[in-house]
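User: quick one, fold this
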Amino acid sequence: MRNKAIKVLMVTLGLSTATMAQEKLYQHTFGLGDVKLLESPFLHAQNLNVETLLAYDVDRLLAPFLKEAGLEPKAPSFSNWIDLDGHVGGHYLSALAIHYASTGDERCKERMDYMLAELKRCQEKNGDGYLGGVPNGENLWKEVKKGNVGEVWKYWVPWYNLHKTYAGLRDAWLYGHNEEAKAMFIKLSDWGTDMVAGLSDEQMESMLANEFGGMNEVYADAYQITGDARYLITAKRFSHKQIFDSVSHRVDNLDNMHANTQVPKAVGYQRVAELTHEQDYMVAADFFWETVSQNRSLALGGNSRREHFPSEQDFLNYMEEREGPESCNTNNMLKLAGGLFRMKPDAKYMDFYERALYNHILSTQHPDHGGYVYFTSARPAHYRVYSKVNSAMWCCVGTGMENHGKYGEMIYTQDGDALYVNLFVASELNWKEKGIRLTQYTDFPASGNSTITIQDVKSNRIKMLIRYPSWVPAGKMKVTVGGKDYAKSFQPGSYIVVDRVWKKGDQLKIDMPMDLRVEELKHNPEYISIFRGPILMGSKVDHGDVTGLVADDHRWGHIAHGSLVSLFDTPALIGDRAALIGSLNQTRAIANQPLHFQVPSAFVDKRFGQLTLQPFYEIHDSRYMMYWLAMTGEEFNKLQAEKKEEERLKLVLDQRTVDAVKLGEQQPEVDHRFKELKSSKGNHQGQSWREAADGGYFSFELQTSAKKNLSLLVTYWGYESGNRDFDVLIDDQVIATEKLGGKWNQSKFFDLNYAIPNDVLQGKDIVTVKFVPKPGHRAGRVFRVRLVE
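Assistant:
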């Protein structure tokens, strides 16, 4: 039956996709080499990133692939994130290809070709098309092929890991023009298609509950490259119905889900839609983008806290967490926005793209040493930490390697004789097919002015479409050529059409006013962010330690572990909000510092001194304000009276905490080497939980930092019923027996403290905590466990 379905698809779709197979996979876009960045923060970031990439030890990145193929590595693997070994190698291959395409730097090509030669040795040694660095992957894939799909839970997201290898090979062909890479990609695609061909739909769905990256995306790419419908079938089998069936019916089921597990799935939905025009895939991709970008994202364009979406109503949680939006998420949201725009050139996609590109992606590279950021906390007066070359191997190091070579990707797009100007970035476009070369000179975002000059032109009649950003007020934008203003009949959130005959030397002038304005935190208007045009404005604040500013290779080095600051010890903006913005707009920029403005002292408590607003993407090595409490003095005093003691107790608990794990959330559990038997998880009152059934258990590791006199602080729900007697063990020694059923009968959370005997902790840096139900009972529900002093 499956072979018959393949034949039908090949007849109906194969011919059309064969004609679509082109050197570029992405319709309506220009090659990265056709768009040259000119002087701007983006050019600086791109050039710095090339030097950063070249500082990595490529043989250490190749080590996991050689090891898994039974070949002798030339250097040892990196110890950081060793259980995910191989994932950064795939990203690095993509990054080399991308930066070679965007800069023409031959050093990137030489490294790319060297990597491909070594990887080809591995693929040939494996003999079946497989190529990956997944630790002990040979045993895993044997079991998966036999139908034992539960084995993926014993590894650290193996399909996610392998997706980076697929993407690296694809990109080495797509951007690096290496035909050998294409052949290797197809061999790996054949291996994967064969791997899942015998799995039932139920087995696939069970396996896809484990994070798998963009496997559906790369199989859609394989289909476009070859026209072979087997790959389209495989792409669809990686669709994961739990998410697809919801978002394709415009239902948001993302509460408390691991964010970057979900976003790449939607990228894959978009790619399938782009190639097949199937409506359910189009709706799934577009609705996912809409709900995340419009309903689940912060001012900087990023989303998630502790790597998970909070409930759609709980944006206040962002103000409390040190682990804010993850840069990987935004990398993938930009892919999704760009893909949707290729299919339907709506200005809303580019409005989001611009916001996320400037305020999140650009901000995640250190402008001096080139390190990458993982979490960008939105908590007032917190900070970020940066990776170090040849040390950190985080997922956001991998996407960070790629990010800064793709700034030219969406500045311009085309459709027939139409040229879209999507972003206002200093650049030069060479549209070879039309014989047009133009430059865009701008100091944006220092000002809202840009001039596009036609340097050469052969196809004279070109329709140029200029984005009218949604942040420009109606009637305020001007687009002039030869004294004629083409913007008058257009509205924000659209494209201004300039349809004329062009000649060499013509200049199109763009003028966009960029006033300061306020955006409220969704559902919490007492918190505001400040923008100038599309640029998120922040402020440095001096609040002491920035522990681990440049991370070592510690497992959790990507988290800014420094002390949290009470919200009542951060600068609040007290007074009338309209008066504040009016005052700011009347303030001249600080001399010789474009986009730097002094916050009027009348609105800020004197203990914080003089504060300066500046683009958030410029703020590094410092605690900062991204969101501000903004209210009247009376409102602020009332809030302090109600919440100050609660805030103090939260900070005391945070200071006492040696280590903690949030049960039921993917990344915290992975980070703490979670194990289980017959356990389940869910969400209640916006909080995730885990429990174990009769005969099962769940366990995890906590770091003690070699401290004594510690206890476990466990969070439970106060209205549990039924048989819920269980033991709490540390390193297999029972330290407590709990009876939850009917214990409180109150609808609120309770924290219970279990003292740990010092002899259990003696000489240990790590302990294993285990919850085991009594016979006939369940263990839990457990929401959070802290190891506290």
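User: anything notable?
Assistant: Residues 518 and 530 are 5 Å apart (CA to CA).
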